[in-house]
Amino acid sequence: MLNAELFRLIAKYNLRLAFTFLIVLSLITTASIILSAHLVAEALSSLDELSTDVFFVIIIYLLANFLTLILEFLTQKTTADLAGAVGSEYIKSLVYERDKEENIQSELAAKLTTQIERFRGENVLPAISLIVRSIIVLGGFCYIVFLVDQRILFLMAVSVILFAASYLLIISRAALYIDRHLTRTLSTLGAIVERIIKARSIIFFSDIKNIIGTNFQRDYHQYGLVRGMSGALNLFPRQLIELIIIGVAVYDYHSESQSIFKTLEAENAVFLSLIAYKLYPQVTMLIKNITTIMMTKTAFPIEFSNINNTSNTNFESSIQVGDLHWDFHENRVLVISGESGCGKSSLAKEIANEFNRRFLNVGFIDSNGFVPLSLDDLDREFSSETFDQLKKELGINLLDTDPSVWSNGQRQRLLVVICLEMGVDAIVLDEGLAALGEKDLDIVLNLLKRINIPLILISHHIDFGSRYPEAQLYSM
What's the pTM value of the predicted model, to 2 decimals? Predict the structure, then answer.
C-alpha cells in the first residue's frame, strides 16, 4: 500500500504531476461516463424519434470509453515508474552485511525479478487503481442517489457495512497465508535462477540440467497452487457483491414504502442499467484491489531511510578490523596474504564496508570480473576522453561487443577503468587481476601506482609484496 516512504519517492522521482493528472483524469472520466450514460439512455428510450444529435451522443460515448482506456494505460505506466523508483532505491541502499552474505545472491535474484513485479502488479497498481476507481465509483453512486431516491443511500450504507464485515471476516486469514507462501515460493525460485546463472557452464554440458529442470518444475507447481488460491480469493468478492445487490433489490421490491424500481420512468431505468453496467466492473476491481493488497504485505521492503550519503564527511584514515590496524594515509597499499579459505575476502569486505561507513566510495573487483553494465550503459554513462584514453592504455578500447562475452581478463581491466572514471576513494583487488597475463598485469599495476588512492591487494599468484615494497603486509 502507498506509505510515507513511497510518497517520498513520488516526490524525489518527480511523479507528483503524474499522480495529480491521474486524479484529474479520473474526475473527468467519471463525468463523461455519467453524461454518456444519460445521452445513450435518452436515445434508447426514444428510438422512434432519433434526432440529429445522434452523432453527438456517439462522440460522447466513444470519448468516455477512450478516457477509460487512457486512464488504465496511465495507471499501468505510473505504477511501473514508481516500481522502477523503488527498485532503484533498493539497489542504491544495498550494503554489505556479513551475516546475510550466504543468501544475498538468492535474495537479489528474487527481489529484482519476481518480487519487484509482484510488488508493482499486486501492491502499487491496486493501490493506485483503488484511488482511481474509488473516484469513479463514488462519483457514479452519489449521482445515482441524487437522481433517483434518497432512500437508496441507506440501502447502500447497509450494503457496504455487510459487505465489508463479511469480506474481511472471511478472507483476512486466507490472504495472510497466501501472502507468506507466495513470498517464500518466489524466494525459492529466485534461488534456483541464481544457481543456474552461477553454474551455467556445468548446466550447459552435463545431465545435471535434468535434475535442476525437475526441481524448477516442482517448485513452480507449488507457486501455481498458491496463485490458484490467490485467483479464487480475488474472484470471491464479485460473487459476494452480486449476492448483496440481489438482496438489496429484493428488500426494496418488497418494502412497504413505494419501491424505487417500480416507479422509475423508462429513461431513468435505461440510465440506471447503463450506469450500473459501467460501474459494476469498477466496483469489482476496486474490491479485488483490496484483496490483492492484503496478499502482498511481504512483497518488497520499503525501507530506504538509511541510503548512503555520497559526500565524504569523515576523513578518519585509521582502520581497525580485528587485529588489523591500517592507516591508509601513512601507507596507501595494504597486501593481505594467507591460505585459501582463511578469510581474506571476508576481511577485505569488512575493510570496504568500513570505508562505506565513512561515506567513501570503494571499487571492489574480485576474480569473477563481472561487469554490471551493458555496452549501451557504458556508452551512455562514460563518454569522456579520459575514459577512452584509459581503455586504450589498458588495451580494451577496440572491443565493441557486450562485456558479458569478453574474457575475464578483459572484464577485469574494464572494471579498473570504470572504478577510476567514477573517482572511487579506494580500490580492493580480491584476485581482481588474477586473469591477466604478465604484460597486461604490469600495465595495470603501473597505472594504479600513478593513482594516489588506498589499495587493498589479495592474490595467491601475484607477488604484490615485491611489486609494492612500501606496502603494509598482513598475513592471516
Answer: 0.73
Helix (H, G, I), strand (E, B), or coil: what is residue 258?
Answer: coil
Three-class secondary structure of residue 337 per DSSP: strand
Can you read off the three cell numbers belonging to residue 409?
581478463
Q: For residues 379-396, b (16+ Cβ closer than 10 Å) or e, as one string?
A: eeebeeeebeebbeebeb
CA-wise closest residue to 184 among 221, 217, 233, 222: 222
> What distance lies between CA 398 and its chain's CA centroid?
36
Question: Residue ranges of the alpha helices (H) in 93-207?
Answer: 104-110, 116-119, 125-147, 151-198, 200-205
Please, are residues 391 and 418 in contact by the beta-carbon 8 Å criterion? no
pLDDT, tens only, 391-431: 999 999 888 888 888 999 999 999 999 999 999 999 999 99
The C-alpha atoms of residue 317 and residue 425 are separated, in whole angstroms, by 12
* Residue 66 to residue 194: CA distance in whole angstroms: 43
Measured CA to CA, the distance from residue 21 to residue 105 in angstroms comes to 39
Do the beta carbons of residue 101 and residue 116 sit within 8 Å? Answer: no
Radius of gyration of the chain (CA): 31
* Residue type (1 letter), 46: S
Nine-digit cell string for 112: 529484482
